[in-house]
Design a protein that fits this description.
By secondary structure, the chain is mainly alpha-helical. The chain has helices spanning 2-12, 19-28, 34-54, 66-69, 74-90; strands at 92-95, 101-103. This is DUF6545 domain-containing protein.
Length: 106
């Protein structure tokens, strides 16, 4: 299942998930909304993938998404992952070397 592979990938990236990137993304996107929370998570994942490719572990590992943790069943978890995938593709552009995300269209 595609969502399961995505979830497993996010777990595998844990040591690369930067808390600094997460905090910057929370300031860039409205993390108090579901749309903003998915953009924050997508930013963390995008930066973690780049860090993984270079072998750069995060200085401080980002906390798990509170929004993702609130999902209590497979359907809700799948919906969350699909929203993160959409944000990754359509809302989050490049993540700068300093961790600052560039929203798409900004």
């Amino acid at each position: 299942m595609r969502e399961s592979a995505l979830s497993d990938g996010i777990l595998a990236l844990r040591p690369y998930r930067s808390r600094r990137v997460q905090e910057m993304a929370q300031r860039t996107f409205d993390a108090g909304t579901e749309e903003g929370a998915t953009a924050v998570e997508a930013t963390v994942v995008k930066a973690a993938l780049a860090a993984f490719k270079t072998g750069q572990f995060a200085d401080e590992v980002a906390l798990p998404s509170a929004e993702a943790a609130s999902r209590k069943d497979l359907r809700a978890d799948t919906e969350w992952l699909l929203l993160v995938t959409n944000a990754y593709t359509h809302r989050v552009g490049r993540v700068a070397d300093d961790g600052q995300p560039e929203p798409v269209g900004a």
